[in-house]
Request: fold
Amino acid sequence: MTNVEKEKEAAAKAPATGTSSAPKTGLVSEKIFDLMKIFLARGEGKHLIPKVKSVFGFEILEKKGGKPTLIYEIDLKNEQGDVHQRTPKNPDATFTMLDGDFD
Reply:
């Protein structure tokens, strides 16, 4: 089993363990952000924090020109890093992407 397959398996189990309280949209990007949250929660990205030192915002659109369906904050500045489904207060950069970009 590859690392990606292991991460997908862990993400599939995450809702049952209560790691995410936000409602599920079924968007592909939501699954990817769930994987990133698990990766960082396990401390596997801790080595990135001193290198990246940034907080990123992601606005996910279902279709071009639409309003964001999901908004995420990826904190790669503090502690071991984290992912939250919320609008970041002071992001160093914000990316607006289509959910289809994650296919």
Observations:
- Residues 14-20 have pLDDT under 50 and may be disordered.
